[in-house]
Amino acid sequence: MNFLFSNLTWDLVTILSVLMIVTGLIVCAVLLSGQKASYGRYTEQSTLMVPATVSWVVQEGPSFFIPLYFLIYHTQNTYGALLLALFLVHYANRTFIYPFKLRTKNGTPWYISLSAIAFCCWNGYIQGAWNSQFQPSYTEVTVPWFFLSLLGILIFFKGMHMNIQADNILLNLREPGETGYKIPRGGMFEYVSGANYLGEIVEWTGYALAAQSLPAVAFAIFTICNIGPRAIHHHQWYLNKFKGEYPTERKALIPFIL
Q1: Is 133:9 a contact under the CB 8 Å cutoff?
Q2: Quick one: which of 52, 95, 99, 108 has the most CB atoms within 10 Å?
Q3: Which ranges of the chain does DSSP label H, i.e. alpha helix?
Q4: Do 210 and 149 meet the contact criterion of CB atoms below 8 Å apart?
Q5: TM segments (predicted)?
Q6: What is the distance between the alpha carbons of residues 188 and 12, in angstroms, rounded to a whole number?
Q7: 152-177 as b/e, with b when 16 or more CB fall inside 10 Å?
Q8: What DSSP assignment string belongs to 31-78?
Q9: How many CA atoms lie within 13 A of 146 on its CB side?
Q10: DSSP string, 159-177
């Protein structure tokens, strides 16, 4: 563990953050070319599947426990601790609450679960290491930096609200025993097909604005590159599935625009 806290940590976190941006851009290019991520409604059933609840808990867990470790044992100032707390609030929901609300009987392909575990370890480490050791404290910041950070925190919680609201709408679309797909309605679904993805993008954009750090910006960029195209895929899927029944004014990801 000493390696994690050596003088190489700054360089390591920086390299891993840049790599995350590059990876996100590559993923975005692949997804926009027409390739769909093989989970959810696009799952390939011919592969080994992990139960959905198990997959979510195991894959999201590193993004909770790794930053928690940094928060408890290595945080050097209050603002870094606050940013880690924001991160932990999101992943507490993703690890311990959301998975147990799932009603789907569909599993997650093993390779999707494995890649998600790897990403959550990667992201959990760079966010935890940076916020615990390198994030400026209140005494080192300027007034504009403070107000940008405050704005970022407000945006983060707005995005979290949008995300959880959209998740709950999707989780409650079907009555117990029902099968098939329905058109989601309510909340931001009145404006976009990917309301849950929009909420998560807003959330991590707010976090990046609050932190103003390379790892936070890298995560926000990766999030946009990874789930932005998925919202576009979902929108097209809804249009093909429901045709004239689907609201024509609804966009894919950005209200009134895209």
Answers
A1: yes
A2: 108
A3: 9-32, 52-73, 78-92, 110-133, 143-171, 195-211, 214-242
A4: yes
A5: 12-32, 109-126, 138-157
A6: 38
A7: bbebbeebbebbbbbbebeeeeeeee
A8: HHTT---SSGGG--TTS-EE-HHHHHHHHHHHHHHHHHHHHHHT--SH
A9: 7
A10: HHHHHHHHHHHHHTSS-TT
Instruction: Give the model's pLDDT for residue 246.
Output: 93
Separation between Cα atoms, residue 160 and residue 179, nearest integer Å? 28
Let me know if 183 is exposed, middle or buried by CB neighbors in 10 A (0-12, 13-18, 19+).
middle
Q: How far apart are CA 258 and CA 244, in angstroms?
A: 19
In this prediction, residue 43 carries a pLDDT of 62
Q: What is the pLDDT along the chain (258 residues), one digit of tens a residue?
A: 455 555 558 889 999 999 999 999 999 999 999 777 665 566 666 578 899 999 999 999 999 999 999 999 988 889 999 999 999 999 999 999 999 998 877 788 888 899 999 999 999 999 999 999 888 765 555 667 788 899 999 999 999 999 999 999 999 988 776 777 889 999 999 999 999 999 999 999 999 999 999 999 999 999 999 999 999 999 999 999 998 899 989 999 999 998
CA atoms within a 13 Å half-sphere pointing along the CA-CB vector of 81: 9
Say what the pTM is: 0.92
Contact 124, 67 (CB under 8 A): yes
Cα dihedral 33, 191, 97, 180 sign: negative
Residue 9's identity, in one-letter code, is: T
- The per-residue pLDDT for 136 is 76
